[in-house]
Design brief:
By secondary structure, this protein is α+β, with helices and mostly antiparallel strands. The radius of gyration is 15 Å and the shape is globular. The protein has helices at residues 51-66, 81-89, 117-126, and strands at 9-15, 20-31, 35-42, 71-77, 93-103, 106-116. β2 (20-31) and β3 form a beta hairpin. It has a six-stranded mixed beta sheet.
Amino acid sequence: VKRKPDPDFKWGIVLKETNAVIGDVSIFDIENARMGSVGYRLDPDLWGHGYVTEALRAAVEFIFTHTELDRLHATADVRNTASLRVLEKCGFVHEGTIRHGKMVSVYCDYHIWGLLREDWEQMKATT
């Protein structure tokens, strides 16, 4: 049986000092080579050091430089202020809130965030 290649992207987040993998960033559920979802995870002991922000910025740069994707989107539990801040720092725009929705395997209120290639290009031109 022939399998179709997985169109998703997944990168490990590596701590430079020890070369240990401490988390990951993914672009997944890519639709028609136009848009994809963003996800990230990090060892909880290392939260608050900017590692996810740095990794997500690099992933976004790769996607908008080396692929045809035009839109990235992410969801984050309204209570997860750290994740909301990561998305904001990386240029994502709050697009709406789902109330009592299912996010992964949890029912909660969650925000939807989006980043368009054109937004990223403008942001990059001003920095």
